[in-house]
Amino acid sequence: MTSSKYYRFFFVAFTTVCLYIAYFGFSGKNELQEISDDTEALTIHVNRGRLGNQMFTYATLCGLSRLNKRKMQMMPKNYDVLSEYFDIHTHLINEATFVEKNPWLILSWLRDEDHRIPVDSNIIKGNAYPNSYTFFHHIHREVREVFHFKPSFVKHAQDLLWEFKRQKPHTQVYVGVHVRRGDYLNNSRGGGGWLKHRNGREVDMAYFKKAVEHFTTKFENVTFLAVSDDREWCKTNLSPLGILTVPDSPSPGHDMALLAECNHTIMTYGTFGFWGGYLAGGEVVYFSDFLKPNTTYRKDYFKYNKMYLPEWKGISTTETGFWETYSTSKNTR
Fold this sequence. Notes:
The structure is a single chain. This protein is an alpha/beta fold. The chain has helices at 3-24, 51-67, 76-82, 140-146, 151-167, 182-185, 194-197, 205-218, 231-238, 252-261, 271-280, 296-300, 304-307, and strands spanning 41-44, 71-72, 104-106, 123-126, 173-179, 222-228, 243-245, 264-267, 284-287, 313-315. Strand 6, helix 9 (231-238) and strand 7 form a beta-alpha-beta unit. Helix 5 (151-167) crosses helix 10. The longest helix is centred in the N-terminal third of the chain and has 22 residues, at 3-24. The N and C termini lie far apart (78 Å).
C-alpha cells in the first residue's frame, strides 16, 4: 500500500469511528447520553415495577419509536434495572435537564393513533404499566435480541439444564413453569393482594394438571422445571405432578434466563411469566378466566387477546356459575 493510500485509509477509518461514536454514543451507568437538541427523540415514563414491568416499558418504547420512525432515549431508572441483566445500547436522558413536551398518552394496548405520535411529543405517558404485546410485537425479533441475557445468566441457566439432564438423561423437551404467588395473593400491608383487588381468582391445581397433560400428550420425555417466588409451595404441591422445583437462584434474572432457555412454557399470570414464555419462543400455556368478567378492569385494561399472543393456549378451570357466587374474601388461600 502506497503512503498516500495508507493515510487516506487511516483518515477514512478514523472519521468512520468518530461518526459512529457521535451518533450512537456509549451506554454506561455513569454516562448519561443527553440529546437535548434532538427534537425527534422519544422517551417513556418509567414506573416503579420490577423486572417484568421494566421490560414491558422498554419494549413499548422500542415498538412505538419504530412505528413512528423516531430515535429513542431511555430513562436512567429503566436502564438501571435492565442493564443488570442485558446489554442495553440506547441513549440515556439527563433527567436534570430533560423537559417534557406534549406527552403522548397511551392506553392499555396499541391504537391506530399511536402510529402517528406528533413530532413535538417527546415522552410517552398515560398508562404507567404498559403490559400489552401489541406495542412491540411487530419488532419481536429485535425485542428478543435486546433481551438476550448476559453470558453469566445464560451459563447459569444452561448449567442447571445439564444438571437436570444428568438426573433425567432421556429428557428431550424442557418446559419452564412460572408460578406467581407473593404479592398476587398477599400484599406487604395485609388485606389481600393483586388478585383480590382486581377481582381475580387464584390458579388451582386443575390448571397445572391440564397444562402438564397438554405437553406430555404432544411430546415424549418432557421435564418440567418450576421457578417461583414461593418455591416451598411448589415443592409441596407440584411434585406429585412430576414438576421439579429449581433451587433458589441469585436473582430474578437467573430465573427468567432459565425459562428463556427452555423449549416451552407454562405460566400462571404476571409480567414475569409473560417474558419467560415470550423469550423461550416455543408453545406457551397460560391460566385464563382468572379475572371476573364485565368489570371495568377487564373491559378497559385487561383483555386476554391483547395481553397474550393469539397462538398461545389459554386453559380455563373456572366452573360454570363460579363468578355468580364469587367473593373476594374467599378467592385466595
